[in-house]
């Protein structure tokens, strides 16, 4: 039986012909990394190959690592296997990995979204034979509202809270979501304050993207300074001692999970804004169709439900288990820097 070009192993997705892993979750010799979230970029690999925009991100998170940066569409060959990275649109520096050997082409998406957020390089559709897709939001219930409408509502919410003399606290993952929100907050309303985890990551990304001015919250920051303004914080800050001095405040979370009211209640959030860095149901389906792939491998999220639906459409679809966690992994990226 022919060995697949990419295999799912206990260390991660492995290209045996090249001796290369894609986003491995255990230490390996050579790893191609799609993006900087904690569930896709782990510490301990001997060599990291990634898009050059992702290098400062993973270096900030992981410390002193041996990394090589490549450009979009730049081909590199390992043991006669041809690799290239292409925009995934998920967060800044996020990639899909194209793998080609003897005319056979596989695409590993990592995490991706098809809506252009204005800060990430927009998603690029690539033709392939086999497509490995995430399914974080692989249910028909997930249907995203256009970004500009959500951001307009966020600024209106902030203004309303200001008129009521309250501080607005907006939760978003420190890498990706926070910068997407920051880019479009209306500074005519007031000052944007930040939690240390978000401030530190944003400073890493400022050379790549123009962001509004932010003010880091310190021990010296007073409640009076915060009133009427907005605070960007990671989800892990909710309920912490850090947040207590901001009373009176109103909380909101920006996440795809805010589609469900129950998610907002469980997290004790006052307001939910549906804004995700992943594809919705239709985005997943349209992406798959555009690749022309016949074989689809579904990973983390609603993979069983989604793969079953794909089989009903006529695709050769199956699931594979990974240690990728979708938005949960992004939360872990935030949690690791909560006290900074």
TrEMBL record:
Gene3D superfamilies: Ribonuclease Z/Hydroxyacylglutathione hydrolase-like. GO terms for molecular function: exonuclease activity; ligase activity. Keywords: Exonuclease, Hydrolase, Ligase, Nuclease. Coiled coil: none annotated. The keyword Ligase applies. Its EC number is 3.1.-.-. InterPro entries: MBL, RibonucZ/Hydroxyglut_hydro, Xnuc_lig_assoc. PANTHER family: BLL1145 PROTEIN, CLEAVAGE AND POLYADENYLATION SPECIFICITY FACTOR FAMILY MEMBER. This is Ligase-associated DNA damage response exonuclease. It comes from Maribacter cobaltidurans.
């Amino acid at each position: 039986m022919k060995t697949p070009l990419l295999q799912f192993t206990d260390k991660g997705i492995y290209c045996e012909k090249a001796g290369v892993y894609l986003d491995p979750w255990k230490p390996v010799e050579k790893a191609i990394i799609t993006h900087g979230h904690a569930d896709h970029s782990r510490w301990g690999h001997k060599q990291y190959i990634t898009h050059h925009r992702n290098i400062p991100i993973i270096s900030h998170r992981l410390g002193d690592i041996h990394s090589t940066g490549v450009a979009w569409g730049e081909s590199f060959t390992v043991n006669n296997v041809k690799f290239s990275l292409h925009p995934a649109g998920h967060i800044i520096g996020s990639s899909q990995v194209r793998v080609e050997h003897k005319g056979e082409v596989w695409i590993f998406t990592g995490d991706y979204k098809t809506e252009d957020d204005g800060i990430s390089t927009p998603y690029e559709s690539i033709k392939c034979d086999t497509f490995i897709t995430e399914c974080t939001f692989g249910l028909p219930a997930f249907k995203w509202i256009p970004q500009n409408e959500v951001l307009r509502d966020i600024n209106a919410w902030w203004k309303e809270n200001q008129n009521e003399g309250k501080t607005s606290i907006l939760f978003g993952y420190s890498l990706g979501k926070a910068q997407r929100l920051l880019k479009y907050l209306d500074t005519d309303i007031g000052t944007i304050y930040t939690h240390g985890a978000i401030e530190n990551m944003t400073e890493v990304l400022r050379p790549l993207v123009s962001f509004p001015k932010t003010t880091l919250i310190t021990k010296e920051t007073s409640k009076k300074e915060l009133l009427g303004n907005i605070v960007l914080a990671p989800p892990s800050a909710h309920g912490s001692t850090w947040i207590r001095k901001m009373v009176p405040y109103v909380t909101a979370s920006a996440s795809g999970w805010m589609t469900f009211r129950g998610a907002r209640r469980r997290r004790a959030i006052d307001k939910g804004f549906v804004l995700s860095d992943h594809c919705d149901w239709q985005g997943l389906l349209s992406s798959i169709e555009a690749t022309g792939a016949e074989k689809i491998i579904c990973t983390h999220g609603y993979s069983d439900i989604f793969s079953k639906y794909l089989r009903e459409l006529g695709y050769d679809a199956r699931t594979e288990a990974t240690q990728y966690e979708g938005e949960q992994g992004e939360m872990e990226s935030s949690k690791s820097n909560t006290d900074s």
